[in-house]
Amino acid sequence: MATLGTNANPRQRGHSAIDFKSATTGVASRAMRNELNRMVEGVEDPQKKKQFKAEMDSFFLLFNRYLDEKAKGQKMDWEKIQPPATEQVRPYSSLPEAKDTSILNKLAVLKLNGGLGTTMGCVGPKSIIEVREGMTFLDLAVRQIEHLNSAYNVNVPFILMNSFNTDDDTARIIQKYANHNIQILTFNQSRYPRVDRESLLPSPRSENADKGLWYPPGHGDIFDALSHSGLLDKLIAAGKEYIFVSNVDNLGAVVDLNIYQHMIDSQAEFFMEVTDKTKADVKGGTLIDYDGTIRLLEIAQVPSEHVEDFKSIKKFKIFNTNNLWMNLKAIKRVVENDELNMEIIVNNKTTDDGTPVIQLETAVGAAIKHFRGAAGINVPRSRFLPVKSCSDLLLITSDLYSLEHGKLVMNPKREFGQTPVVKLGDTFKKVANFQKRFRTIPNIIELDHLTVSGDVWFGKKVILKGTVIIVANEGSRIQIPDGSVLENKLVSGNLSVIDH
Q: What pTM does this model have?
């Protein structure tokens, strides 16, 4: 009688594990394809059907890649990861000064406008949060481009890549710029189905299923979305050759002639702006040399045992600002030749009804490896002023900066270039609470570090200097009186100063 041997050939056992994974992958792939086809067939409008099919085909390629990588257990070899070589990252200070402003006529500017303001307690697109002098992120960006067009007599179009979450609101809001000296173009990034983590089938059952069952697949989708929308061809036909892409909430991402001219002169197809890492930036993606190729490494790709290495400021000194310069014809080439193979970021989520799902996303910076002459440009920190929280909002609404044509300019009275470290607690998390708790924004020209925790309220014309830590214990309230000057102070407990 045959028995199950315990000493089977290990090579055969390895093969059978791979065969099993391959078979499982094949089943999951076919099941997904059938579900997507069924959803496509359910769309009656021919134009809508064509667009939906293109999106589902792109999603299916991404899903298949995810299955393959999962089956093969493909990961980056940590031993091959090195900091970028000198020629792969160029210091901004080494770039020649550009004089020819006519090159701006060949440029388009694009802001990534897919995110909502929910983390800051706001409804609608993040780009419509008021950030300075009654102006929103969008207002400031429009003012910058309008100034470029007027000052240099050029025509730089302003493009917004929206998501299905922000498209309707953005379309209404941009009507107010109708009489401005600016051409505003919009297009939507793709809408992909969330995937049930257990069944590996799409969460939505039809094209018009609930919004919560779909997701925008990260800004790496920019290439497919630009192409599918027809906008890529329109820009090229209009004589545009380059595009400057950045996050809509990065107020430091303004058009820079020196970087742009260097791109033209060096015939590079892709530049990524990076800046020096501080302890606040340890989770940011970094440029690496991998087998002689420049690549973007995100923290999500790092094996758990190497996360501390990744965060090290000694080994990886720079991080990606997501300010990117790209050649439009090169984008067309890599899309048409199906060259794009960006690392997949698996984002685990839970639907409203508690079902675990996955979202497969990609980052635009990961495409750097597909472009000729690609390099990083190490820029000053002033080109990276993101507003991710109300702590950031305090900095950019303060006297640290002034506004010039929609651009934030550091106050010359600030003697050291670094911005202060600001950590506001949960009571300041939402914009509405932030606005209530500061009667006016404090003077922080000489501030190094501010930590605020608990039920704290600031009066008018408060001045903060050096290191200031204010902690209201649970059940206590701290009221900082009008005109207070706090320098190198720790305030804790319960404090309320009342004028008699």
A: 0.90
